[in-house]
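User: Can you help me understand a structure? I only have the sequence.
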Amino acid sequence: MALQDAILVTLANGESSGYDLAKSFDVTVANYWTATAQQLYRELDKMAAEGLVSARVVEQERRPNKRVFALTEAGWTALREMTTRTPKPTAIRDELLVQVEAIDHGSEDTVRAAITAKRDASHEKLARYLRRRAAMLDGRDEAAYLRQARRLGPYLTLARGIAFEEENIAWCDWVLAVTDPGDGA
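Assistant: Let's start by predicting it. Here is the structure, written out as C-alpha cells:
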C-alpha cells in the first residue's frame, strides 16, 4: 500500500482541501497509516499530475485561497483496483521493541519510562478511538450499526485500531509488571 492508496480512500468520502485531508488523516487513517502534511501535499500534487484527483481553487476572504481535491474517474478506478491487489505483509519497525530487547544490557529505568510513555499514548489514542466509535454508533449497538451502515470500512479499521491500542496497553502493563524491581524478580 502506498500513501496514494490511503489518500484515495480518504477522498472517497468527498472532496477535501489538503489541510482538511491532513486533519482527517490524524483522526481516521492514523490508526493504520501515518503521513505528515508535507507528504500529503506532495502526494496530492503528484496524483493531480497523474489525473487521479482534480484540484480546484476556492477563494476565501481574509484567508489565502485553498485548493480542494476530489477523485476523478481515474482515481475511482485506481481505488477499485487497489482493493484487488494482495497487500504486502506488515513489517513491524518499532524502536521501543529494540530497546526492550536490549533491556538486560542497558538502562532498565529508561526503557521502563519509555514503556510507560507508550502506554500513556495508547490510552490517549484509545480514548479518541472510543469517542469516534460512539459518534459512529450514535446510540445504536454494534449489530444495529453494521446492519444499517452505508459504509463498513471506516468502522472495521477503527475496530482494528481499538484492538491494537488495547493490546498495546495490556502488553505495556505486563512488561512493566515483569520488570518491576520491587516484585522480587
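Now, to help you interpret it: Residues 108-137 form the longest helix (30 residues). The helical segments are 3-11, 18-27, 37-49, 73-82, 95-101, 108-137, 142-148, 153-178. Let me know which part you'd like to focus on.
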